[in-house]
Structure formats: structure tokens, C-alpha cells
Hints:
A: 311 residues; ABC transporter involved in vitamin B12 uptake, BtuC; two-stranded antiparallel sheet; 4 strands; B: 241 residues; binds magnesium ion
Amino acid sequence: MEYFLEQLINGITLGSIYGLIAIGYTMVYGIIGMINFAHGDIFMIGAMISLIAILALGLTASASFALLLLALILVLAIAMILASAFNWTVERVAYRPLRGSFRLAPLISAIGMSIVLQEFARIAQGGRPKPMQPLLSGGFELMHRTTEAGDFIVRISTIQIIVIVTTLALMALFTALITRTSLGRAQRSCEQDMKMASLLGIDVNKTISITFVMGASLAAVAGLMFFLRYGVIDFYIGFVAGVKAFTAAVLGGIGSIPGAMLGGLVIGLIEVFWSAYFSVEYKDVAAFAMLAVVLIFLPQGLLGKPEVEKV
Amino acid sequence: MASPLLTIRGVETFYGKIQALKGIDLDVNEGEIVTLIGSNGAGKSTLMMTICGTPRCRTGSIRFGEADITQTPTHEIIRLGIAQSPEGRRIFPRMSVLENLQMGAAVTDPKYFDEDLARAFKTFPILEKRQSQRGGTLSGGEQQMLAIARALMARPRLLLLDEPSLGLAPLIVKQIFEVIRELNAKQGLTVFLVEQNAFHALKLAHRAYVMVNGRITMSGTGSQLLASPEIRAAYLEGGAH
Ligand SMILES: Nc1ncnc2c1ncn2[C@@H]1O[C@H](COP(=O)(O)OP(=O)(O)OP(=O)(O)O)[C@@H](O)[C@H]1O
Ligand SMILES: [Mg+2]
């Protein structure tokens, strides 16, 4: 029972990180109908920038908790801004000029950008994995049971709390932004009919750029969280995490933001539970098998919208 | 003489190799209702969209008031004060009626929103009843009303209407034409109207143009064209009642 709860917490943490990345895939797909294959690498760039900023600030675990938290917020802001700048540039130079050409062109360009970003990180930062001593080590005991067989403890670490709370807060913020504000309406109008949106005075190119910036900010949050939680990154983490997050976006119903979050959670939970109860080697197979099963029975994904409308 | 608001000179528009507009000259003056009639495929909708810069004309010029808008980006043309209720209505299907109207008001000062919304609901009471329903689930006629209301939310100086009567019951058509007349008379709104329903359109319009195969073949006051035997034969056959 305790083991199960502990794995549940681990799964939710990992799933939150996947979900944050998946939102970037799903939003970009929603608005211009392409898969931004470089998005996973934007997540990696976010993690790298976080690492560099943490080293530059000279942060160590010996600092007080309040100071650490404050410094991490600063690190997060830097990572979000720079990752956004990267994604903005990628869209501007590699995707926008291809808009209106044949459908596969931007996809191929995206694969190219993914390689560019990976190689850039490898050349600038080296190819070896970059480990780091955990910055935040504390935690709380949620349950403590003593039996003849020994003590059973369920713990949640500080960093897990930070990951989950941040993700929840960002989800709430994003949902409000998309459903309530004029910016969100502009984005949804471009998703549904770009030409009509421009006939109502919406600057479509600007709206698309903002979407890339929003996706990149969330990926940067995920990057910092990933680094804090797992303590080691390299130039290649974007590929693996990207594929998982993309799977999560499809599983949840591509184009749907709550779907991306739900898909992320499902993938994270499957991966963690499969590793815990069956075999670590086959965790990815389990996650992708789940995707296949869901898509057979629910081709739209878990929260994809079946269309009922007159055109 | 009223000052020209929209001035179109020598406009040619292509879809790939197909030429849809073959040198259009057309004026709409401040405060006028001008209608454009013509058979299917003549190029009427193409002209409406070319005015808004999508597609862009290959040659010729388009002026709106003082500004040359031939190369202006679409969203900026709209911000200058042109609103269009386009062919096919193009309601956002997964937005509520209210959100569709909010989209119409994207270019206006938010302080006008409540007042304009109240006016839209007064003009089309059915929209108020349907305000939280998704655009895609409205009936065709309701969508048409929403498209017109949405265009009006932008407080345009020039309103472009592409077949506003399409698919509407005769009573509603009458009502919509009445609304156009009133907006023009009371608020001085300039209207450029494309219509299949030539009889109604010519009766409503101050001036009219006839388009055939991407060219303007005739123009005059609404009553002149109504009286023309050619027009009667080509566009009003059995339609005049
Ligand atoms: N997107 C497009 N691509 C290629 N050709 C087009 C396109 N849109 C219109 N055309 C062609 O341009 C010509 C003019 O079309 P347009 O829609 O402007 O006619 P219309 O006068 O509005 O007709 P209707 O009364 O049927 O609405 C037609 O021959 C049409 O086939
Ligand atoms: Mg037409």
C-alpha cells in the first residue's frame, strides 16, 4: 500500500512534467496544424539554461530555503525568457516562410530544427551528461506505519511538491488565459478559421508567435523541474521527453489543452507503475501500447472533441 | 457630391493561373449603399476579399479614404474601418455566439462593447437567446444574422456584405434589408453589398454595378438598372415580387 502511494506520487510528478511539455505540442498543432518536432529540444534548452543559471548564481543546497526558492524563481524566469526566444526564432526562420507551401514542408523543417538545437547544445555544452547535487533535499512524511516487519513510510519530497503545485497553478492560469481573455479568443479564432480571424483584425502571425512563446515557457518550466527532480541532463533529453510528451498530446486528444495534461499524467503513471511492478526495460513499450489501445477505441484521443457542427 | 470612400482602379486578381478579376474600376462614396450583382462565378466574392487584401490583387490599386491599402496587411485594413460579412458566413463553430460577437469587437475600444452588444441583440433578438450556444450549432439563418452582427460590432466605416440574404426566409431577408437601410440612413454607414437577390438589392441601393466574367459591364442608379431590360432579363426573371 505504501509502495503504491509512493509510486503514485512519482507518477504524478513525472506526468506533470510530460503534461507541461505536451501543452506546447498541442497548442501549436491546434493553431497551425503542424507537429513542432523541435519542441522537445526547446524543453532541453530550458533545462540547460536552468543549469547554467544555477551555476552562474552559485546556488548550493547550503543556502536557506527561502533564498533558494527566490533564486529558483529567478532561474525560472531566465529559462522561460530564453527558451521563448529560441522557439520564437525557430518559428520565424524555419516555419513561417513555409506557411502555405505543401503540408510536409514545415514538418521536415521541424525535424531539421530539432537536430540544429541538439547539436547546438552538444557543441556549446559538451556531450557528457551533467549531474548536479540535489538543491532541495527535504520532504515530508505523509504516512508512517510501524509493524513487526519494519517501518513503512510514504514520503513526498519538497521538489515533488514544487513540481505538482507549479503545474496545477500554471494549468489554472493557462485555462483562464485561453478561455477568458481576448488573447485566448484570438488564438482560438485562428485555430478555427485563420482567414476569418484576419478579416476581424487579428494579426495572425503575431498570434502564432505568441503561441510558440507560450509553449516554450511551459517547456522551460518543465525543463527546470526535470533538472531539479532527476539531477542530471544532457543534450539528448529533449528527444526522449519530446516523444513521450507528443504521445501524451495525442493520447489526450491533440489540440486539447486539458487533454495534453491528462495524457501527460497517464503516460507518467504508466511509466512509473510499469517500472515499479513489472520491468524498467519495457516501460516505454507499455506507454506506447497504451497509446495504440486508446487510439483504436477513441481515435480522437481521451478528450478530443467529436465535431458536431454545420459548416 | 459625396466624397469617395472606396476607390478601386484597374484591379486584377488571379487564383494561380485563373484570372478572376479582369480590371475592375469601382467607387463607393461616403454614405452610399452600393450593390454588386452578377451571376455565379462572376467574381463578386473575389472582389470583396480582394478589397480586404486576401487574395491580393496582382495589378491595380485600392484606396480607402486617404489611405492606399493595395499592399496593406489584412488585419490592418480591418483596423482602418472595413468590416466584412463574408461568403459562407464563416462563423467560428467552436465559439459561443457571444464570443463570436466579441471577436467582431476585437478592433474596437472595449468601452463600446456593452452598448454595441445591446444594439446587436436588439436588431437580432434570436442571438440573445442563443448567446451561449456554440456558433456551429446555429441554423443557417441564425449564422447569417450572427455574421452580420459580428461585422457590425467592429463599428466599421464601410460594411461589406456578401450575400446576406443567402438561405434566409423571405421575412428575415426583408428584416435584414430593413436593418441595412436603417444603419445607412440613421448612422450614415456606407455599405457595399453583393447580392443574388437582385430585385431587393437594386431597390435598396443608391447605385449598382453589374459584373460578368470578372468585368464590370454596367453601372447606374438602382432604379436605372431596375428599369433596364437587359437586367430584367438576366437577373430579375420571375424574381420581382
Ligand atoms: N480559391 C479559389 N481558387 C481557384 N479559383 C477560385 C477560388 N475562388 C474562386 N475561384 C474562381 O474564381 C471565379 C470567381 O469566383 P467568385 O467566388 O468570386 O464568384 P462569385 O461571383 O462570388 O460567385 P457566387 O455568386 O457563386 O458566389 C470562379 O470562376 C471561381 O471558380
Ligand atoms: Mg460569391
